[in-house]
Design goal:
The chain has 200 residues and is of the alpha+beta class. It is 40% helix and 8% strand. A 5-stranded antiparallel sheet has the order 2-1-3-5-4, covered by helices on one side.
């Protein structure tokens, strides 16, 4: 699998992206985003490409998988760009992060891959698994004492869970109340530019 080894904060600067979107608080010396250098006016293609790169980077998705999500979003009723964002938001690793069981989506992906998460009582180790309304996402009984999860709960204390999810911290589980809506996704991106890019 291709891996982008560019430091996260450097990549954030390149994409003019706030590190908090990824779960990084910016407490370290290198975490502050420098103001991008004044550049010549970007082309329409460059703007479209950057929006796509932002979405891929935030959700940790590679090109082939991202293109597959776009095709699925296009075949669904409704607005393609909004469908795409909701599909990405419904990934299991993102849900684990949104519930506060991990500090970042990358950490959530590792927690899922290592088999510490259940969906409806069944251990699920596929980060791209798409949750649906009515699903119950929980930490496996044997994994509830993991330091990485306990640490995330402390760090995320006071962080609001999206309205389409409901969390029970005591039981380390969360319910998917409804499908995520575009206005419930706190990620500043112009998904219409992605649609235009793939429509060429």
């Amino acid at each position: 699998m291709a891996i982008n080894r560019t430091p996260v904060l450097k990549r954030c600067r390149q994409l003019n992206l706030d590190p908090s979107v990824l779960g990084y608080t910016g407490k370290s010396k290198s975490s502050s985003i420098r103001q991008p250098k004044r550049r010549r006016k970007e082309s329409e293609y460059a703007l479209q490409l950057r929006e796509k790169q932002k979405a891929k980077f935030v959700y940790g998705v590679l090109e082939k998988q991202f293109r597959g999500y776009f095709k699925r979003a296009k075949s669904m009723p409704g607005i393609t760009g909004e469908n795409l964002m909701c599909i990405l938001e419904s990934r299991l690793d993102n849900v684990v992060y949104r519930l506060g069981f991990a500090k970042t989506r990358k950490e959530a992906r590792q927690i899922v891959t290592h088999g510490h998460i259940q969906v409806n009582g069944v251990r699920t180790d596929v980060p791209s698994f798409r949750v649906r309304p009515g699903d119950l996402v929980s930490v496996c009984p044997k994994s509830k004492e993991l330091l990485v999860i306990k640490s995330a709960l402390v760090s995320n204390e006071g962080v609001q869970v999206p309205a389409w999810l409901e969390v029970d911290i005591e039981k380390l589980q969360g319910s998917v109340i409804s499908a995520p809506q575009r206005d419930q996704i706190d990620f500043e991106i112009n998904e219409q530019l992605i649609v235009e890019l793939y429509s060429k």
